[in-house]
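[Automated response] Your request has been received and processed.

Submitted sequence:
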Amino acid sequence: MKIAVLTSGGVDSSVALMLLKSKGYDVTAFYLKIWLEDEIRHLSGCPWEEDLSYVREICEREGIPLHIINMQKEYFDTVVDYTLAEVKKGRTPNPDVMCNSRIKFGLFMEKIDEDKGEYGGPFDKIATGHYARTEEKKGTVYLKVSPDQVKDQTYFLSHLTQKQLRRLIFPLGKYKKKRVRALAAKFNLPNKNRKDSQGICFLGKFKYNEFIGHYLGTRKGDILEFESGKKLGEHEGYWYYTVGQRKGIKLGGGPYYVVGKDTKKNIVFVSNDYFSADKKRNMLEVEDINWNTGAPPRAKKLKIKIRHSDYFYNCRVLSLNGGGASLKNKKNDQGIAPGQFVAFYKGGVCLGSGVIK
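Generated structure:
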C-alpha cells in the first residue's frame, strides 16, 4: 500500500510517519507550504523553516521521499479569504476546520490524484498525525473519537465527507499523547522534545490579532455597556472581538464579556452581568451541515462540541430542515457565536458538523 503522509515538523505527524514505515508501508512524506510568507513574514520571521528542517532530517535519515508543495495561493483563496470575510461580518470563523476539508483533504488530495509521476503516486491512502480514528462498517466509514479526550481532533475533521474519510489513515488513533511522546523517543526523532504547536494552522507563531490587523487595519469605535448603552471605552475595530470574549477588553470594574457587535456602526457591546438567568444562550440555529455518513441521524438526542475541547454538551435536535437544524443545549454556553462550527456526536462517533447561524 502506498501512503502519502502529511508532515508538519511536529512530533505527532513525525511519529505517524515512522509508525507506518516501521510496519512496512511504502510511505512518501509531503510538506504543504501554506503559511503567508510574502504577506506577513515581517511579523515574526520564518517559523516554517524550522518545521521543514525537522521533516528533512527525518526523511533523509530514514530514506523517505519528501515533496514540498507550495499551496499558498490555494490556501489564501480558499481559507484566508473565508476567514477575513467572516471576521468582517462580525462572525467567528474556524480556519482549521476549513483547512482540513478544503486544503489537506481537498485540493491536496486532488493534486496527488492527478499526479503524473511527479510525486511517485498513485497513492492508496493519505495519513496525518491527527488524534482520531476511522472504522468501516457495512460500507460506511465512521469518524471516531480518540481515547485521548484532551487531544481528540475530530472537531477539526468534522466537516469531511464520506469520500474523504475513505482515503484517510490516522496512525495515532489508538494512542494517547504520553504514548506518542514515548514512541518519539523510541524512534529517536530530532523533534522528540519539541512543544506542541498552538494556534491557527496558517499563522504559525504569528498572533491572530496581528494577522487581522495586517489585512483589516484599525478603526476606532465605542465600547458600550449592553444593558444601559453607556460608553465605557473605545476599541480599535470590532473585528478584534468575538462574542464570549473576556480577555483583552481592558476596562475597569469588570470582568466584562463581549455580548454583541454592531458591524455597521463599529460598536462592541459588553456586559459584566453575563451569566444572569435571562441570558441563557442555549439555543442554536445551525446551517451548512455536513453529515459525513451521508445522512442525518435518526436520534433526537446528540452530543455536540462548539469548539475544540474535551467537553461535550448534551443537546436535543428540535428540527432538521435541509442542511440546517435547530438545537437546544441542556446547559448554557456563554461563548456561542455566529460562524462557529458545531460538531455532532453519538456513541463516540463524530457524525459531522455545521455552522452556527
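Summary generated for your ticket: The first strand starts at residue 2 and ends at 6. The chain has a mean pLDDT of 90.
If you did not submit this request, please reply to this message.
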